[in-house]
């Protein structure tokens, strides 16, 4: 009976992915083309150099490929995954939810193909102790771990996990692996982590800018989608529209939860979202793939000062009196209740708005200015795949086969459902948002200062917002020595590691 159900689902999915892959090819020139800004002279501020980012991603329609793994029989082996409440594989039954069920059938298909049983143990919140304990004890408790990125880099530099190159059947040239993100994760040309279609948090942890369509209509704002497609969605335009939206609704002269604001956001998330969208990174890598501080360079300082001006100094941004710095439910409710024009959120949190009666749209974060040719999107706090060092040659062969198949089958069956059905149709509320989602996912950027050395860069910029100042250079001078020490320690460790 299970095989019959699986067959029916796969036939349905094949039809779905065929329709969407054809649609992507037909619309590729419209949604993925870089805007031509050569004739623009309206913005005289200095252009942001795109070389601050990795090589620009190739904008291609999704390509489906087979894994070419051949026949394998692992004799009923139990494949053990440890992850951080992300539910990579923990889909034990069908629920009727299309994304859940696509993951369920993917897992069953792989289990049947390789004669294995997949299990997943979930870590609790931020507690990585069970993972570290297993790695240090060399207890062979797990085949694969999916770990929050700062901890994953510590495990790598301590020599507790394998390089991704140690997996003999993982082929990073296949289209279901993401070269654009994977290249950002290496240090000293040592690649311990790779992103692919199996890596759902690389989608859910991508940030987007939502806007309230009712407020936009009431203010007769220009077409925000057209602004994006024309390359005119910039920091200045964000400030202009945010100011128009701000209104003291009860006339008491105090802007609080009873009033309407231009921008609702958790303080710690504002700076990295904007500096990345502005085309700079706080930490770049040199020609030898060695990280170094760039937050003290002129281009970064210009972008940072500008983002402070358009969010904090302009009064567009509203900060709650007693904010929850991780995920403030007050701001979510304010956006639902028509109290903010713009609201920033990880894409994975958009389903929290499914009960919002007022329609909203999805945008990328704005560019620094019109001269910037590419929209960039922040990837915050990704989860990284780690292969424990205690895995021997036989283990690595089996794990690499299963991981490769997971990436391949996720590209065929899970990502099309997430991207085209669950996200574009179920949560996005208009066809125009679909094009915006394409732009958002085209160039996801991982910044070490945002995700790894957070205490020195992102937290420092969050403190600047709390103090309501723009003292970036003086604050950097305080943290730079400790940051450089941390960078040097990591680089030294990676240089000693075997690939």
Kindly report the name of the CATH homologous superfamily of the largest domain: Periplasmic binding protein-like II
Number of strands: 15
What is the CATH topology descriptor of the largest domain? D-Maltodextrin-Binding Protein, domain 2
Q: Which stretches of 5+ consecutive residues score pLDDT under 50?
A: 1-52
Total number of domains: 2
Could you give the distance between the termini?
A: 45 Å
Strand content: 5-15%
Helix share, percent: 40-55%
Using only C-alpha atoms, the radius of gyration works out to: 23 Å
By CATH reckoning, the class of the largest domain would read Alpha Beta
> What overall form do the CA principal axes indicate?
globular
Q: Helix- and strand-based class?
A: alpha/beta
Described by its quaternary structure, the protein is single chain
For the biggest sheet, the summary is:
5 strands, mixed
Number of helices: 17
Could you walk me through the main structural features you see in this protein, from its secondary elements to its overall organization?
This protein is an alpha/beta fold. The chain has 2 domains: 64-204 and 380-427, Periplasmic binding protein-like II (D-Maltodextrin-Binding Protein, domain 2), CATH 3.40.190; 207-378 and 444-488, 3-Layer(aba) Sandwich (D-Maltodextrin-Binding Protein, domain 2), CATH 3.40.190. It is built from 17 helices and 15 strands. The strands form 5 sheets. It has a 5-stranded mixed sheet with strand order 10-7-11-6-12. A 4-stranded mixed sheet has the order 2-1-3-14. A two-stranded antiparallel sheet has the order 4-5. Helix 1 packs across helix 13 (393-427). The longest helix is centred in the C-terminal third of the chain and has 35 residues, at 393-427. The two termini are 45 Å apart. Residues 1-52 have low confidence and may be disordered.
């Amino acid at each position: 009976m299970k095989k019959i159900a699986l067959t029916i689902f796969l036939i349905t999915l094949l039809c779905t992915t065929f329709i969407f892959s054809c649609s992507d090819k037909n619309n590729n020139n419209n949604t993925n083309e870089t805007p031509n800004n050569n004739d623009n002279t309206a913005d005289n501020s200095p252009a942001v150099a795109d070389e601050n980012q990795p090589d620009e991603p190739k904008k291609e329609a999704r390509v489906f490929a087979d894994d070419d793994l051949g026949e394998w029989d692992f004799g009923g082996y139990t494949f053990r995954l440890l992850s951080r409440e992300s539910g990579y594989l923990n889909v034990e039954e069908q629920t009727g939810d299309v994304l859940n069920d696509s993951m369920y059938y993917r897992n069953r298909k792989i289990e049947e193909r390789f004669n294995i049983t997949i299990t997943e143990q979930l870590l609790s919140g931020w507690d990585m102790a069970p993972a570290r304990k297993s790695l240090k004890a060399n207890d062979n408790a797990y085949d694969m771990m999916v770990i929050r990125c700062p901890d994953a880099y510590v495990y790598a530099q301590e020599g507790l996990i394998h390089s991704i190159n140690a997996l003999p059947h993982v082929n990073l040239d296949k289209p279901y692996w993401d070269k654009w993100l994977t290249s950002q994760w290496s240090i000293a040309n040592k690649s311990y982590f790779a992103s692919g279609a199996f890596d759902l948090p690389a989608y859910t942890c991508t940030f987007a800018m939502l806007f309230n369509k009712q407020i936009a209509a009431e203010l007769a704002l220009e077409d925000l989608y057209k602004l994006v497609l024309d390359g005119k969605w910039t920091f200045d335009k964000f400030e202009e529209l945010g100011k128009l939206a701000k209104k003291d609704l009860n006339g008491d002269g105090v802007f609080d939860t009873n009033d309407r604001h231009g921008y609702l956001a958790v303080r710690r998330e504002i700076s990295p979202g904007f500096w990345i969208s502005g085309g700079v990174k706080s930490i770049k890598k040199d020609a030898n793939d060695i990280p170094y501080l760039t937050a003290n360079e002129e281009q970064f300082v210009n972008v940072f000062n500008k983002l402070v001006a358009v969010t904090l100094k302009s009064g567009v941004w509203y900060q709650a009196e007693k904010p929850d710095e991780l995920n403030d439910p007050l701001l979510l409710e304010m956006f639902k209740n028509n109290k903010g024009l713009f609201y920033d959120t990880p894409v994975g949190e958009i389903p929290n708005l499914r009960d919002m009666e007022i329609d909203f749209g999805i945008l990328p974060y704005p560019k620094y200015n019109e001269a910037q040719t590419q929209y960039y999107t922040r990837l915050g706090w990704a989860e990284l795949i780690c292969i424990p060092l205690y895995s021997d040659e036989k283990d690595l062969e089996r794990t690499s086969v299963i991981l490769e198949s997971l990436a391949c089958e996720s590209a065929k069956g899970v990502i099309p459902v997430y991207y085209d059905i669950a996200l574009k149709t179920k949560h996005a509320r208009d066809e125009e948002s679909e094009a915006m989602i394409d732009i958002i996912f085209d160039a996801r950027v991982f910044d070490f200062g945002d995700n790894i050395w957070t205490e020195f860069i992102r937290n420092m910029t969050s403190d600047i917002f709390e103090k309501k100042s723009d003292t970036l250079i003086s604050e950097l001078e305080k943290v730079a020595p400790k940051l450089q020490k941390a960078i040097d320690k990591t680089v030294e460790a990676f240089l000693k590691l075997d690939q």
